[in-house]
Write the C-alpha coordinates for this entry.
Amino acid sequence: MTFPIIRARKPLKHWNSCLEQGAITIGFLGGSITDARPRHNWPEYVREWLLATYSNVRLRIENAAIGATGSDLAALRVKRDIIDRNCDVVFIEYAVNDHDVPSYRRRRTREGLIRQLYKAGVTELIFVYTYSGEMKEEIDKGRYPASIAELEELAIHYHIPSIWVGKHGLDQVVAGKLSMDEWLPDGLHPEERGSRIYAECVIEYLQSELQGQETLDRKHIKHDAGAIQPEQLLYEPVTDTSEVERSKGSLLQILQQPDASKLPRTLDPLCWEYIVEIPLSELELKGQWVEQRWHQYEWIDTMLETNELGASLYYSFRGRGLMLVFDYGSCSAEFEYRIDDGEWIYSNRDCPEWVGDDGWLRLFDCGDEHTNEEHRIELRVVKPRHERQELGEYIFRLGKVAIIL
Protein backbone atom coordinates (compact mmCIF):
# COMPACT_ATOMS: atom_id res chain seq x y z
CA MET A 1 0.00 0.00 0.00
CA THR A 2 1.01 3.64 -0.41
CA PHE A 3 1.49 5.46 2.88
CA PRO A 4 0.74 9.18 2.97
CA ILE A 5 3.74 11.07 4.35
CA ILE A 6 1.73 14.01 5.66
CA ARG A 7 -1.80 14.08 7.06
CA ALA A 8 -2.84 17.67 7.72
CA ARG A 9 -6.19 16.83 9.42
CA LYS A 10 -6.93 20.39 10.54
CA PRO A 11 -5.65 23.89 9.71
CA LEU A 12 -3.06 25.57 11.90
CA LYS A 13 -5.34 28.45 12.87
CA HIS A 14 -3.54 29.41 16.06
CA TRP A 15 -0.11 29.27 14.43
CA ASN A 16 -1.34 31.60 11.69
CA SER A 17 -2.89 33.90 14.28
CA CYS A 18 0.47 34.08 16.07
CA LEU A 19 2.18 35.00 12.82
CA GLU A 20 -0.29 37.84 12.34
CA GLN A 21 0.42 39.05 15.89
CA GLY A 22 4.17 38.87 15.31
CA ALA A 23 5.28 36.32 17.94
CA ILE A 24 5.12 32.55 18.45
CA THR A 25 6.53 29.99 20.89
CA ILE A 26 7.14 26.53 19.44
CA GLY A 27 7.68 23.50 21.66
CA PHE A 28 9.34 20.18 20.90
CA LEU A 29 9.01 16.90 22.79
CA GLY A 30 10.84 13.74 21.81
CA GLY A 31 14.03 11.72 22.14
CA SER A 32 17.59 12.03 20.91
CA ILE A 33 16.55 12.54 17.28
CA THR A 34 14.81 15.78 18.33
CA ASP A 35 17.07 16.78 21.26
CA ALA A 36 18.57 20.26 20.73
CA ARG A 37 21.95 19.53 22.30
CA PRO A 38 23.66 17.97 19.23
CA ARG A 39 22.87 21.21 17.34
CA HIS A 40 22.27 19.35 14.07
CA ASN A 41 18.88 17.69 14.60
CA TRP A 42 15.83 18.43 12.47
CA PRO A 43 14.32 21.19 14.67
CA GLU A 44 17.43 23.28 13.97
CA TYR A 45 16.65 23.38 10.24
CA VAL A 46 12.94 24.00 10.78
CA ARG A 47 13.92 26.95 12.96
CA GLU A 48 16.36 28.11 10.26
CA TRP A 49 13.56 28.07 7.67
CA LEU A 50 11.11 29.88 9.94
CA LEU A 51 13.63 32.64 10.67
CA ALA A 52 14.32 33.13 6.98
CA THR A 53 10.65 33.00 5.99
CA TYR A 54 9.10 35.07 8.79
CA SER A 55 11.85 37.55 9.58
CA ASN A 56 9.40 39.99 11.18
CA VAL A 57 8.04 37.42 13.65
CA ARG A 58 9.56 37.04 17.09
CA LEU A 59 10.33 33.32 17.34
CA ARG A 60 10.83 31.50 20.63
CA ILE A 61 11.85 27.84 20.76
CA GLU A 62 11.24 25.56 23.75
CA ASN A 63 12.96 22.32 22.77
CA ALA A 64 12.24 19.96 25.68
CA ALA A 65 13.28 16.76 23.89
CA ILE A 66 15.64 14.51 25.88
CA GLY A 67 17.60 11.59 24.48
CA ALA A 68 16.73 8.07 25.69
CA THR A 69 13.35 9.15 27.08
CA GLY A 70 9.80 8.38 26.00
CA SER A 71 6.26 9.66 26.30
CA ASP A 72 6.01 8.39 29.88
CA LEU A 73 8.55 10.89 31.17
CA ALA A 74 7.06 13.54 28.87
CA ALA A 75 3.66 13.09 30.53
CA LEU A 76 5.29 13.78 33.90
CA ARG A 77 7.18 16.90 32.87
CA VAL A 78 4.99 18.49 30.20
CA LYS A 79 3.53 21.04 32.59
CA ARG A 80 6.94 22.35 33.68
CA ASP A 81 8.72 22.15 30.34
CA ILE A 82 5.99 23.01 27.80
CA ILE A 83 2.73 24.27 29.34
CA ASP A 84 4.25 26.64 31.90
CA ARG A 85 6.46 28.08 29.13
CA ASN A 86 3.38 29.15 27.15
CA CYS A 87 4.01 27.16 24.01
CA ASP A 88 1.59 27.94 21.18
CA VAL A 89 2.24 24.75 19.16
CA VAL A 90 4.10 21.56 19.99
CA PHE A 91 5.84 18.95 17.84
CA ILE A 92 5.78 15.48 19.45
CA GLU A 93 8.23 12.74 18.37
CA TYR A 94 7.95 9.42 20.23
CA ALA A 95 7.40 6.77 17.54
CA VAL A 96 10.95 5.45 17.96
CA ASN A 97 11.60 5.77 21.69
CA ASP A 98 8.24 4.19 22.54
CA HIS A 99 8.76 1.37 20.04
CA ASP A 100 9.81 -1.28 22.57
CA VAL A 101 7.34 -0.19 25.26
CA PRO A 102 4.29 -2.46 25.76
CA SER A 103 1.31 -1.30 23.75
CA TYR A 104 -0.99 -0.78 26.73
CA ARG A 105 1.61 1.39 28.45
CA ARG A 106 2.43 3.71 25.57
CA ARG A 107 -1.27 4.20 24.81
CA ARG A 108 -1.78 5.46 28.35
CA THR A 109 1.23 7.76 28.43
CA ARG A 110 0.70 9.26 24.99
CA GLU A 111 -2.99 9.95 25.47
CA GLY A 112 -2.35 11.40 28.90
CA LEU A 113 0.23 13.73 27.37
CA ILE A 114 -2.23 14.89 24.72
CA ARG A 115 -5.04 15.48 27.18
CA GLN A 116 -2.84 17.47 29.55
CA LEU A 117 -1.85 19.76 26.69
CA TYR A 118 -5.40 20.13 25.41
CA LYS A 119 -6.77 20.95 28.85
CA ALA A 120 -4.09 23.62 29.25
CA GLY A 121 -5.21 25.25 25.98
CA VAL A 122 -2.32 23.94 23.86
CA THR A 123 -4.39 22.37 21.11
CA GLU A 124 -2.15 22.66 18.05
CA LEU A 125 -0.02 19.54 18.27
CA ILE A 126 1.90 17.92 15.42
CA PHE A 127 3.08 14.31 15.49
CA VAL A 128 6.43 13.59 13.83
CA TYR A 129 7.34 9.95 13.13
CA THR A 130 11.04 9.19 12.69
CA TYR A 131 12.61 5.85 11.76
CA SER A 132 14.36 2.88 13.33
CA GLY A 133 15.44 -0.35 11.64
CA GLU A 134 12.84 -2.41 13.53
CA MET A 135 10.13 -0.65 11.52
CA LYS A 136 11.27 -1.73 8.07
CA GLU A 137 9.80 -5.24 8.15
CA GLU A 138 6.27 -3.97 8.76
CA ILE A 139 6.66 -1.14 6.24
CA ASP A 140 7.78 -3.66 3.60
CA LYS A 141 4.62 -5.67 4.35
CA GLY A 142 2.49 -2.59 3.71
CA ARG A 143 1.66 -2.09 7.37
CA TYR A 144 2.15 0.73 9.80
CA PRO A 145 4.64 -0.23 12.53
CA ALA A 146 2.67 -0.74 15.74
CA SER A 147 4.09 2.31 17.48
CA ILE A 148 3.05 4.54 14.57
CA ALA A 149 -0.33 2.82 14.09
CA GLU A 150 -1.23 3.61 17.69
CA LEU A 151 -0.13 7.22 17.29
CA GLU A 152 -2.31 7.45 14.19
CA GLU A 153 -5.27 6.17 16.21
CA LEU A 154 -4.72 9.06 18.62
CA ALA A 155 -4.13 11.52 15.76
CA ILE A 156 -7.47 10.60 14.21
CA HIS A 157 -9.34 10.75 17.51
CA TYR A 158 -7.87 14.12 18.57
CA HIS A 159 -7.50 15.63 15.05
CA ILE A 160 -3.72 15.94 15.24
CA PRO A 161 -1.65 16.42 12.06
CA SER A 162 1.05 13.82 11.50
CA ILE A 163 4.25 13.84 9.45
CA TRP A 164 6.02 10.56 8.73
CA VAL A 165 9.50 11.93 8.14
CA GLY A 166 10.99 8.45 8.56
CA LYS A 167 9.06 7.11 5.58
CA HIS A 168 10.11 10.16 3.59
CA GLY A 169 13.77 9.44 4.39
CA LEU A 170 13.39 5.74 3.60
CA ASP A 171 11.85 6.64 0.24
CA GLN A 172 14.93 8.73 -0.56
CA VAL A 173 17.14 5.72 0.13
CA VAL A 174 14.97 3.36 -1.93
CA ALA A 175 15.04 5.87 -4.81
CA GLY A 176 18.85 5.85 -4.73
CA LYS A 177 19.16 9.52 -3.76
CA LEU A 178 21.40 8.63 -0.83
CA SER A 179 22.64 5.55 1.00
CA MET A 180 21.37 4.31 4.35
CA ASP A 181 24.75 5.18 5.88
CA GLU A 182 24.43 8.74 4.59
CA TRP A 183 20.93 9.02 6.03
CA LEU A 184 21.39 7.24 9.38
CA PRO A 185 25.08 6.51 10.02
CA ASP A 186 24.37 4.37 13.10
CA GLY A 187 21.03 3.05 11.83
CA LEU A 188 18.98 5.43 14.00
CA HIS A 189 20.43 8.89 14.52
CA PRO A 190 20.76 11.20 11.52
CA GLU A 191 23.55 13.72 11.33
CA GLU A 192 23.27 16.96 9.37
CA ARG A 193 22.24 15.49 6.01
CA GLY A 194 19.71 13.07 7.45
CA SER A 195 18.29 15.72 9.76
CA ARG A 196 17.79 18.06 6.82
CA ILE A 197 15.79 15.31 5.09
CA TYR A 198 13.54 15.08 8.13
CA ALA A 199 13.26 18.87 8.29
CA GLU A 200 12.40 19.29 4.60
CA CYS A 201 9.36 17.07 5.11
CA VAL A 202 8.20 19.17 8.08
CA ILE A 203 8.84 22.35 6.10
CA GLU A 204 6.78 21.01 3.19
CA TYR A 205 3.87 20.58 5.58
CA LEU A 206 4.30 24.08 7.02
CA GLN A 207 4.47 25.57 3.53
CA SER A 208 1.07 24.06 2.83
CA GLU A 209 -0.52 25.34 6.04
CA LEU A 210 0.98 28.70 6.98
CA GLN A 211 -0.09 32.02 5.60
CA GLY A 212 1.88 33.48 2.74
CA GLN A 213 3.12 30.06 1.62
CA GLU A 214 2.42 28.18 -1.59
CA THR A 215 3.55 24.64 -2.32
CA LEU A 216 3.67 23.56 -5.95
CA ASP A 217 3.94 19.83 -5.17
CA ARG A 218 1.52 18.60 -2.49
CA LYS A 219 1.35 14.96 -3.48
CA HIS A 220 2.49 13.85 -0.01
CA ILE A 221 -0.22 15.78 1.81
CA LYS A 222 -3.62 14.40 2.76
CA HIS A 223 -6.22 16.79 4.17
CA ASP A 224 -8.80 14.19 5.10
CA ALA A 225 -9.00 12.62 8.54
CA GLY A 226 -7.29 9.59 7.05
CA ALA A 227 -8.58 6.67 9.05
CA ILE A 228 -6.26 3.68 9.15
CA GLN A 229 -7.79 0.31 8.45
CA PRO A 230 -8.11 -2.34 11.19
CA GLU A 231 -5.89 -4.75 9.27
CA GLN A 232 -3.09 -2.16 9.43
CA LEU A 233 -3.06 -2.30 13.22
CA LEU A 234 -1.05 -4.82 15.19
CA TYR A 235 -3.16 -4.54 18.35
CA GLU A 236 -6.76 -4.72 19.47
CA PRO A 237 -8.38 -1.26 19.62
CA VAL A 238 -9.57 -0.11 23.05
CA THR A 239 -13.26 -0.84 23.52
CA ASP A 240 -13.69 -0.40 27.27
CA THR A 241 -14.72 3.19 27.91
CA SER A 242 -16.06 2.65 31.41
CA GLU A 243 -15.45 5.36 33.98
CA VAL A 244 -12.37 5.06 36.15
CA GLU A 245 -12.54 5.98 39.81
CA ARG A 246 -10.94 9.41 40.19
CA SER A 247 -9.67 11.10 43.31
CA LYS A 248 -12.00 13.83 44.56
CA GLY A 249 -9.28 15.67 46.46
CA SER A 250 -8.12 19.23 45.96
CA LEU A 251 -5.22 18.19 43.70
CA LEU A 252 -7.60 16.83 41.10
CA GLN A 253 -9.79 19.93 41.31
CA ILE A 254 -6.76 22.07 40.56
CA LEU A 255 -5.89 19.94 37.53
CA GLN A 256 -9.38 19.93 36.05
CA GLN A 257 -10.22 22.78 33.71
CA PRO A 258 -13.67 24.27 33.03
CA ASP A 259 -13.60 23.19 29.39
CA ALA A 260 -12.47 19.62 30.09
CA SER A 261 -15.91 18.36 29.05
CA LYS A 262 -15.20 19.52 25.49
CA LEU A 263 -12.41 16.99 25.08
CA PRO A 264 -13.18 13.80 23.15
CA ARG A 265 -13.73 10.73 25.30
CA THR A 266 -10.61 8.90 26.37
CA LEU A 267 -9.59 5.93 24.25
CA ASP A 268 -7.91 4.40 27.31
CA PRO A 269 -9.55 5.26 30.63
CA LEU A 270 -6.25 4.59 32.42
CA CYS A 271 -4.36 7.24 30.47
CA TRP A 272 -2.00 9.50 32.43
CA GLU A 273 -4.23 12.56 32.32
CA TYR A 274 -3.98 13.60 35.96
CA ILE A 275 -0.43 13.79 37.32
CA VAL A 276 0.88 15.67 40.34
CA GLU A 277 4.58 16.19 41.07
CA ILE A 278 5.49 15.94 44.75
CA PRO A 279 8.16 18.27 46.23
CA LEU A 280 11.18 16.27 47.36
CA SER A 281 11.03 18.18 50.64
CA GLU A 282 7.86 16.24 51.54
CA LEU A 283 9.62 12.85 51.58
CA GLU A 284 10.49 11.30 54.94
CA LEU A 285 14.20 10.43 55.05
CA LYS A 286 16.38 8.14 57.13
CA GLY A 287 20.16 8.16 56.79
CA GLN A 288 22.51 10.65 55.14
CA TRP A 289 20.80 12.60 52.37
CA VAL A 290 21.29 15.97 50.73
CA GLU A 291 18.81 17.91 48.59
CA GLN A 292 20.51 20.40 46.30
CA ARG A 293 19.94 22.56 43.28
CA TRP A 294 20.89 20.60 40.17
CA HIS A 295 23.16 22.16 37.55
CA GLN A 296 23.98 19.14 35.39
CA TYR A 297 20.97 19.60 33.11
CA GLU A 298 17.99 21.89 32.89
CA TRP A 299 15.22 19.32 33.28
CA ILE A 300 15.62 18.95 37.05
CA ASP A 301 15.40 21.77 39.60
CA THR A 302 16.67 19.91 42.67
CA MET A 303 18.13 16.46 43.29
CA LEU A 304 17.90 14.27 46.37
CA GLU A 305 21.17 12.37 46.74
CA THR A 306 22.86 9.80 48.97
CA ASN A 307 25.84 7.46 48.72
CA GLU A 308 24.84 5.51 51.82
CA LEU A 309 23.68 1.95 51.17
CA GLY A 310 20.72 1.29 53.43
CA ALA A 311 19.51 4.90 53.44
CA SER A 312 15.73 4.96 53.10
CA LEU A 313 12.78 7.18 52.33
CA TYR A 314 9.04 7.02 52.94
CA TYR A 315 5.99 8.75 51.52
CA SER A 316 2.23 8.42 51.91
CA PHE A 317 0.16 9.30 48.85
CA ARG A 318 -3.34 9.07 47.45
CA GLY A 319 -3.59 7.92 43.85
CA ARG A 320 -3.43 4.94 41.52
CA GLY A 321 0.16 5.31 40.35
CA LEU A 322 3.60 6.40 41.51
CA MET A 323 6.55 7.31 39.26
CA LEU A 324 10.15 8.09 40.22
CA VAL A 325 12.68 9.92 38.02
CA PHE A 326 16.41 9.43 38.52
CA ASP A 327 19.74 10.67 37.31
CA TYR A 328 21.02 7.23 36.33
CA GLY A 329 24.31 5.77 35.13
CA SER A 330 26.85 3.00 35.67
CA CYS A 331 27.77 4.48 39.07
CA SER A 332 24.17 4.51 40.30
CA ALA A 333 22.98 2.55 43.30
CA GLU A 334 19.84 0.46 42.96
CA PHE A 335 16.95 0.26 45.41
CA GLU A 336 14.26 -1.96 46.84
CA TYR A 337 10.77 -0.70 47.52
CA ARG A 338 7.41 -1.88 48.75
CA ILE A 339 3.96 -0.37 48.84
CA ASP A 340 1.53 -0.85 51.74
CA ASP A 341 3.80 -3.34 53.54
CA GLY A 342 3.82 -5.65 50.52
CA GLU A 343 6.75 -7.69 49.25
CA TRP A 344 10.04 -5.91 48.65
CA ILE A 345 10.75 -5.38 44.94
CA TYR A 346 14.27 -4.89 43.57
CA SER A 347 14.58 -2.11 40.98
CA ASN A 348 16.64 -4.29 38.57
CA ARG A 349 17.37 -1.54 36.04
CA ASP A 350 19.48 -2.51 33.04
CA CYS A 351 22.71 -0.65 32.39
CA PRO A 352 23.46 -0.59 28.62
CA GLU A 353 27.00 -0.13 27.34
CA TRP A 354 26.28 3.37 26.05
CA VAL A 355 25.36 4.65 29.53
CA GLY A 356 27.97 6.86 31.19
CA ASP A 357 28.68 7.20 34.89
CA ASP A 358 25.51 9.29 35.20
CA GLY A 359 23.40 11.68 33.12
CA TRP A 360 20.51 9.47 31.94
CA LEU A 361 17.23 11.01 33.12
CA ARG A 362 15.36 7.78 33.70
CA LEU A 363 11.83 7.04 34.84
CA PHE A 364 10.96 4.13 37.10
CA ASP A 365 7.37 2.88 37.17
CA CYS A 366 6.06 1.76 40.57
CA GLY A 367 2.73 0.82 38.97
CA ASP A 368 -0.28 2.76 37.68
CA GLU A 369 -3.08 0.34 38.58
CA HIS A 370 -3.16 0.57 42.36
CA THR A 371 -6.50 1.26 43.99
CA ASN A 372 -7.17 4.99 44.04
CA GLU A 373 -6.81 5.45 47.77
CA GLU A 374 -4.17 6.08 50.44
CA HIS A 375 -0.88 4.20 49.98
CA ARG A 376 2.55 4.30 51.52
CA ILE A 377 5.85 3.58 49.79
CA GLU A 378 9.05 2.54 51.56
CA LEU A 379 12.32 2.63 49.64
CA ARG A 380 15.85 1.64 50.66
CA VAL A 381 19.10 2.11 48.74
CA VAL A 382 20.99 -1.10 47.91
CA LYS A 383 24.07 -2.24 46.01
CA PRO A 384 23.44 -2.96 42.31
CA ARG A 385 23.79 -6.48 40.93
CA HIS A 386 24.95 -5.56 37.41
CA GLU A 387 28.49 -6.54 36.41
CA ARG A 388 29.15 -3.05 35.08
CA GLN A 389 28.42 -1.61 38.49
CA GLU A 390 31.01 -3.40 40.62
CA LEU A 391 32.37 -0.22 42.20
CA GLY A 392 33.48 0.89 45.62
CA GLU A 393 30.92 3.69 45.96
CA TYR A 394 27.48 4.19 44.47
CA ILE A 395 25.34 7.28 44.04
CA PHE A 396 21.56 7.37 44.38
CA ARG A 397 20.01 10.47 42.81
CA LEU A 398 16.25 11.05 42.80
CA GLY A 399 14.99 14.05 40.83
CA LYS A 400 11.20 13.74 40.67
CA VAL A 401 8.34 11.96 42.39
CA ALA A 402 4.94 12.02 40.68
CA ILE A 403 1.50 10.61 41.49
CA ILE A 404 -0.99 9.48 38.87
CA LEU A 405 -4.55 10.17 40.01
Remarks:
- Residues 225-258 have pLDDT under 50 and may be disordered.
